[in-house]
Specification:
Elements: E1 3-8, E2 13-14, H1 15-22, H2 28-36, E3 40-42, E4 45-47, E5 53-54, E6 59-62, E7 65-71
Parallel strand pairs: 1-7
Antiparallel strand pairs: 2-5, 3-4, 3-6, 6-7
């Protein structure tokens, strides 16, 4: 599974917001439901809290995608 890097501002982001930013869910409600059903893994562990704080270096696995949290650089703004 190839890793896709997803850049986030401010260094930290909640899991539900991250899934929307990455484009793997359309709404916050969809993110909430799918996270609560145990469909998300963070750093290899099932995560059921949509408010889980992610930081650069965290790896999120969701719907067959591997998404790495990276800090947004000035060139990406």
């Amino acid at each position: 599974m190839d890793r896709e890097q997803v850049a986030v501002r401010d260094g930290m982001i909640r899991l539900g917001q991250f899934l929307k930013l990455a484009g793997v869910v359309d709404t916050g409600g969809e993110a909430k439901a799918r996270i609560q059903e145990g469909e998300a893994r963070v750093n290899g562990e099932v995560e059921t809290r949509r408010g889980r704080q992610l930081a650069p270096g965290d790896l999120v696995e969701f719907a067959g995608a591997a998404l790495e949290v990276v800090a947004q650089t000035a060139a990406q703004t």
